[in-house]
Amino acid sequence: MTESSRRQSSYLWLSLAVTATAYYGFSLTYFGPMLAGEYPAASPTVHLHGWTFFLWYLLFPLQSGLIKFKRVAWHRLLGTGSVALAVAMVGTGLVVIGTQMEASLQPDGPAFWQAMGPAVFSTLVLFTLFYTLGVRARANRDRHRRYMLLASTGGLGAAGFRIASQYMGSASLTSVVAVGILAPNLFVLAAMAVDWKRGRGIHRVYRYGLPFSVGLETAAFLLTPTAAGRVVINALAWIGRMTAPLY
């Protein structure tokens, strides 16, 4: 097996692990209850949001496999189509987060969203940023695939804290969400370790991307109780009010 083939195999296995994590996390609160007929009534936007993310985490390892097996034309075709998918993911994500943030400001609103909404929003920001950089870097295979891994792990926080809640028992809500949102960065560390083991050093996309991801996620937790956090909360709530007809 050539060095290039080994790198592609490692990336494919990483992408499969990311996808398995996403599906397991959402099987706990979405797919499982839906299949059992127990999922509560929800707006079409909520389901569209869920299924666009489902498609992304199906597409992510598929794209890795297409490169490994040298189906480059198909990879490029699906990559072009992924732009519309990403727009739908981010758009519906803003509507859902904004609506929940607006509800959290009401007297009987969900406390989870007022405390954790900015942190959840940070995962959407990371996905959007790294996906955009990945599209721009599509002519450079090394940078492109690393950006797409960062985008996929960045968007994994919602699944992560669902999994964390299953294993952390009586831990505080803040601890559960913090672990769930930060833990997906371990996939990036694994990718860095693969690069290092292969004698390639740490790619600059990871050198800058991982600290930025961890920094933004941590800042979202730390700033939420502050005046700056209140500005973010109110801004997201305003988005919720403006997009209410879409919810």
Characterization of this structure:
The protein has 247 residues and is an all-alpha fold. Helix 1 packs across helix 6, helix 1 runs antiparallel to helix 8 and helix 3 runs antiparallel to helix 4. The N and C termini lie far apart (50 Å).
Write the layout of secondary structure elements.
Elements: H1 3-35, H2 44-68, H3 72-104, H4 111-136, H5 141-154, H6 157-167, H7 173-182, H8 185-197, H9 204-223, H10 227-242
How much is the average pLDDT? 91
* Helix content range: over 70%
Coarse shape: globular
Radius of gyration: 18 Å
Number of strands: 0
Low-confidence stretches: none
Taking the sheet with the most strands, its summary is:
none
Distance between the termini: 50 Å
Pairing-aware structural class of the strands and helices? mainly alpha
Strand content: under 5%
**N-to-C series of helices and strands:** HHHHHHHHHH
Number of distinct helices: 10
